[in-house]
Here is the input.
Amino acid sequence: MILKATGISKSFGGLIALKNVDFHINSGEILGLIGPNGAGKTTIFNVLTGIYHPEQGNIDFNGEDISKYRPFEICHKGIARTFQVTRAFLDMSCLENVLVGIIGNNPNLSPAEKKSEAIKYLEFVGLKNSVDTQAKNLTLVGKKRLELARALSTHPKLLLLDEVLSGLNTTEMREACDLINIILDKFGITIFWVEHVMSAIMEVSGRIIVLDHGEKIAEGLPKDIANNAEVIEAYLGESDA
Ligand SMILES: Nc1ncnc2c1ncn2[C@@H]1O[C@H](COP(=O)(O)OP(=O)(O)OP(=O)(O)O)[C@@H](O)[C@H]1O
Ligand SMILES: [Mg+2]
Here is the structure.
């Protein structure tokens, strides 16, 4: 097990976003996280990465409670993420964007080594021909790829993906799913993935947890989740599944 969250609660003013949520992530798995809009999925990622601290509960990452750590400390411990709304530095090139992650996490590399490391990640995500392109000039799929390269460049042990498929066409989705599988197989990075595209997350995830109104309502194999009456009632019945 790489991460265990116990009794996580988080509210915003009077609104309860997460209520006593328990879950764990096994090393080497792709864990899916689904649920309706506003269920608290992104809030879980924000709590795991130190953007918010939970009001209750703790988060054990590789044997250490990280629930009070700040985002850069959690990044150094080995958790990286992509954002639902991409967050690249728009006036910087793709190369410079990835170098930001590399410089912070590999201080001992020479400048040439840092550059070749950055290019390696850009190639991996399919941006080999956009190394010098400014991030703002990338297409949506290009921005998503850059987001992934930036996250990978910090050498995570656990990667959190927040709706990496939204807005992509069928071919782009297929390519993104292939990349996610390769990230696990080639780099050995465990993945926790939030997605609304049911066909993809059901196919790629080994296990799925379901959130509704800030509470975990189900957990299990994709085929069991797809047939779970409470999940269908709360979410799948009206989704694009
Ligand atoms: N910074 C914030 N301030 C106030 N309310 C917030 C904040 N962040 C999240 N919320 C609220 O917490 C609840 C959970 O939001 P969250 O973004 O985690 O949902 P989600 O499951 O990711 O939804 P979606 O599928 O639409 O991305 C929502 O009601 C949201 O409005
Ligand atoms: Mg969200």
Notes: The longest helix spans residues 170-187.
